[in-house]
Specification:
The protein is α/β, with parallel strands linked by helices. The protein contains 13 helices and 13 strands. The chain has two domains: about 240 residues, Type I PLP-dependent aspartate aminotransferase-like (Major domain) (Aspartate Aminotransferase, domain 2, 3-Layer(aba) Sandwich); about 130 residues, Aspartate Aminotransferase, domain 1 (Alpha-Beta Complex). The longest helix has 21 residues.
């Protein structure tokens, strides 16, 4: 029975039954018109979610990391320079991926809990008068710290610098849960995965690729085979893939987009913000702090709760799983042990979030944390009671 408890990790997220059933399809010839009829609406739907006016969407059998590998190998060459801020575990992973592929990474060290340093990025691009920097790597939502960055502001900084670098955005834990505007923000490649806001099992890397990035494939010389988007384009033109695709996941993706659009994307984003704000109010009522350095940086999909001095955030996650069969996220990298994370994205309601907050309170009380039972739940209840009509009318 404990498997029926919702998870509160920042992905994979809880799956609606209708999406789970949509993934349960009979064997289908992936080179048939029947597959094309399933596949093309899914691709078109992702374009709408990303707000893409041009370019192409690619669905790859992988996770977000595979999507990032496809992004760099299809557009860059050995020895190229990319610019990245390091301010969390996932921004670090993209840096590591680039370095392993023989790219030069100009790294802007940034305190964990902060977002992308737009002024320093602008300065670095202005200083690059020779155009060495070929791409800027941006983590929209740093899942390790619960911090969002201003991608629209980053685009403005790049424009002020007058630099022609490509803009690659990791939207793995933001897309389909938080506002994302591929076209308005001038994004060249956006990467996400099926297991977050799309509420599917892991297994699909989802990329939005601009015309500018597509053109860069002609001169890029990093090796790629399985992730070669030129092969993908040829397969798409025929209504399929250059290899066997994950048919069930693609069927589920089409259903996921139907659910998101039935709710309305603006309503989806408002729901995530509302649930996140309820969690943040609970944390404040506990007398604790979140990792995000300011309210403007706080993520709407995951909150990293800072453990008080003398306590270990990882113990919260362990005991919650062992005693109450509920999953929270551990701290990663530089914040390992210093935080525990509450994921609040995908298929979640205020009632589900309240159950997670109540569980977290019990665990912290079990561990002797200075938290009064019911305090955070009550704070979230008051907020949800006062905002439910507003959310319903949105």
């Amino acid at each position: 029975m404990h498997a029926q408890n919702p998870v509160f990790i920042p992905g994979p997220t809880n799956m609606p039954d209708t999406i789970r059933k949509a993934c349960d399809v009979a064997t289908l010839d992936h080179r048939s018109p029947a597959f094309a009829a399933m596949f093309r609406p899914a691709v078109a739907g992702v374009k709408r979610v990303l707000k893409m006016d041009a370019g192409e969407v690619f669905l790859l059998p992988a996770t977000g990391t595979g999507g990032w590998e496809a992004a760099i190998t299809n557009t860059l060459s050995p020895g190229d320079t990319v610019l990245a801020a390091r301010f969390g575990m996932f921004s670090q992973r993209w840096i590591d991926l680039c370095q392993r592929h023989g790219l030069t990474v100009e790294i802007l060290e940034t305190p964990w809990g902060q977002g992308m340093p737009l002024d320093r990025i602008e300065a670095a691009l202005k200083a690059d008068t020779d155009g060495r920097i070929k791409a800027v790597l941006a983590t929209h939502n740093e899942t390790a710290t619960g911090v969002r960055s201003d991608i629209g502001g980053l685009r403005k900084a790049m424009d002020r610098a007058g630099h022609g670098a490509l803009l690659f955005v990791d939207g793995v834990s933001s897309i389909a849960s938080m506002p994302f505007d591929f076209t308005a923000w001038g994004v060249d490649i956006a990467v996400t995965g099926s297991q977050k806001g799309f509420m599917l099992p892991a297994g699909l890397a989802i990329l939005g690729v601009s015309d500018k990035a597509l053109a860069a494939m002609d001169s890029a010389t990093l090796p790629r085979t399985y992730f070669d988007l030129r092969d993908q384009q040829k397969g798409y033109a025929a209504g399929g893939y250059p290899y066997t695709p994950p048919v069930g996941l693609i069927a589920g993706l089409a259903r996921s987009i139907e659910l998101l659009e039935d709710e309305g994307l603006d309503a989806v984003f408002a729901r995530h913000h509302r649930l996140a704000e309820g969690v943040r109010r609970a944390v404040a009522a506990w007398g604790l702090e979140i990792c995000a350095a300011s309210p403007a940086l706080a993520s709407d999909t995951v909150t990293a709760v800072v453990a008080p001095a003398g306590f270990d955030g990882t113990e919260v996650v362990k005991l919650a799983a062992e005693k109450y069969h509920v999953a929270f996220g551990v701290g990663l990298g530089a914040v390992a042990g210093k935080v525990f994370r509450i994921g609040h994205l995908g298929m979640l309601s205020d009632v589900m979030v309240l159950s997670g907050l109540a569980t977290a309170e019990m665990v912290m009380a079990d561990l002797g944390w200075p938290v009064r039972l019911g305090s955070g739940v009550a704070a979230a209840q008051e907020y949800f009671r006062g905002t439910v009509r507003l959310a319903a009318a949105a």
